[in-house]
Amino acid sequence: MIEWFLHTFPHAQPLRGLAGGILIGLAGALMLLGAGRIAGISGLTARVTGLAKGGAPWPLAALFIAGLPLGALIVAALTGPIPAQFPTSLIVLTLAGVITGIGTRLGSGCTSGHGVCGLSRLSPRSIVATLTFIAAGMVTVALVNALTAGG
Amino acid sequence: MRHLIGLFSGLLFGAGLALSGMMDPARVRGFLDVAGHWDPTLAFVMGGAVLVMALAWAIQRRMHRPALCEEFALPGTRLIDARLIGGAALFGVGWGLGGLCPGPAIASLVFHPLDASVFVVAMLAGMALFRLADRPHT
Fold first, then answer.
1. Residue A64 pLDDT more than 60?
2. B113 vs A: CB within 8 A
3. What are the TM regions of this chain, as residue ranges (chain A) (predicted)?
4. The pLDDT of residue B138 is above 60
């Protein structure tokens, strides 16, 4: 079973994925049980930048957002450079950013709020949202790959 | 002082993103690339996170109030409408294009300042646009 998996998906990192996922779950648990709120990153970002009315207390949201790069820096210090391959086109990055900004506000959440916090709560809204953005992401990647392969 | 819980939560979240490989846009797009060389890592990340959070929700249901503040402030709406589905679909398109969602993009600001800030500034512009367009008609 394990050999089959490693052979079929040579680039997958299931153990690191699971370990990282558990940390993300603990982060969400801390926010929920300590501060009584959803660790939804798009919502907290909008709150910190004044782009959302109401929501979490500003210091709570700001400290959470500041913690994201700091937590990543700690992992980098302990385990070495964090691999990342960004899209090469700044136009693609810009377009992706604008669409992500509009979509996460219109749909009230992203991978953290709907995909982790809402899904685990079995919220019907979050289940629908998560299935929708994964499906839309898969279609988008397939279309982009088809277009770039043809061009 | 009680807001410090936000910092600890953010630290754990950022560490989880970095450890899990989710700060690599190519790996995230690999998960969405079901027709190509599919990379299931993201499913393990989500599985681990959802497992822990499901326990947290079970504990939450037995609590009268959060540990550090007066009351829970949780989404109560159950409405599944065009806003939810349209917004999630749009987000999915952006996610597929860039391989970035808001958390990894913000965490990446310290490692890839140029690329990450282009995405984050564009995302904030998108949020601002939405806010302008979504003003209630008077």
1. yes
2. no
3. 20-39, 60-80, 86-106, 127-148
4. no
